[in-house]
Amino acid sequence: MESDIFIYKDQKKLRCGYTTGSCSAGAAKAAAWMLLSGQELTRISLQTPMGIVLDLALEGSDRTEGTVSCGIRKDAGDDVDVTDGIVIWAKVSKIREPGIQITGGDGIGKVTRQGLDQPPGSYAINEVPRRMIRDAVESVMEDTGYEGGLLVVISAPGGEELAARTFNPTLGITGGISILGTSGIVEPMSEKALIDTIRLEMEMHAREGREYCIITPGNYGMHFIGNVLSLDLAHTIKCSNFIGDTIDMAGAYQWKGMLLVGHLGKLVKLGIGIMNTHSRYGDGRMETISACALQAGADRVLLQAVMGCATTDEAVRLLKEAGLFEVVMDILLERIALSLKRRAPEEMEMGAVIFSNRYGLLGETDNAQELIAHLRKEMT
Description:
Layout: E1 6-9, E2 12-15, E3 17-18, H1 20-37, E4 43-47, E5 53-57, E6 60-64, E7 67-73, E8 87-95, E9 99-104, E10 110-111, H2 127-144, E11 149-155, H3 159-163, H4 168-171, E12 173-174, E13 185-186, H5 191-207, E14 212-216, H6 219-227, E15 236-238, H7 243-252, E16 257-263, H8 264-267, H9 285-295, H10 300-307, H11 312-321, H12 325-343, E17 349-356, E18 360-364, H13 368-379
């Protein structure tokens, strides 16, 4: 079944999908109905926490004595989601103990670290999907008059392989995917989902007693942190483009200090106060470098050449050839430090390290080495 729910983003009509939580709850409801009523189903309806009712097609079902399994294929809509197309299965069995027990099976990850939605040792089936599964199965028990107990086992064949392409290994979830979702509906290109992931990782760090951390937009930064700065990547959080939001969250967790490490092409935008570095929120890379170059004494010819650059590496080359790079970088770092100070709580120390894939380390704020020292101490 394809969802007929749409949203509009950037003047585009995008189709919404449904979460692994909705798949799990729908599959569990169908399996419970088939087990308790004896009837066969090919579709099942499910009301999501968002209030939207889904009509879900069963991918398959299997019946043995005292047990029914049903599967529903995940549909992520127009969202880019590695779990799109995976089949989530729910096996429902009668048990002697009253009530509903929910656990995981093949392809569902297990939590190994504090600070996540579920405690260590539990299957990574989050609180809202668990509630959805319970509510769906309870409704079937009421409709059929069943007063005994049921065991619900959620599985996702192939989930362990898919999990390697998610945040799970970083978060400390091993052996499979997580069953997620707070609304039951997947919104395409959801910034909220990314921010929620950053918040979850930050909470995990806070619960482990850390007071300093490193944030970086992506994999280039991770490589630089590990291979050039020789810092433990376990203290690093990927913030994607959401630098401002990540600083806000760090303030809420009362971090003492945070070091931002990133490529010039991203962090240069902080020089004019852009705290979400995605291109659709603004570019300003060459304008910022040109403003710093003007302040450093660059002539009109050089400024025009910088404004014509397609990449920050190209601009760096021109500034180096003109002998102005170090001065321009000092001015830029002062601007970046000011932007970070304005965004961060007064009691939290913020620093930055900027690099280029072509030129390596380009510069750092005055307090960067102090923050690195704190990080090294916390890592020991």
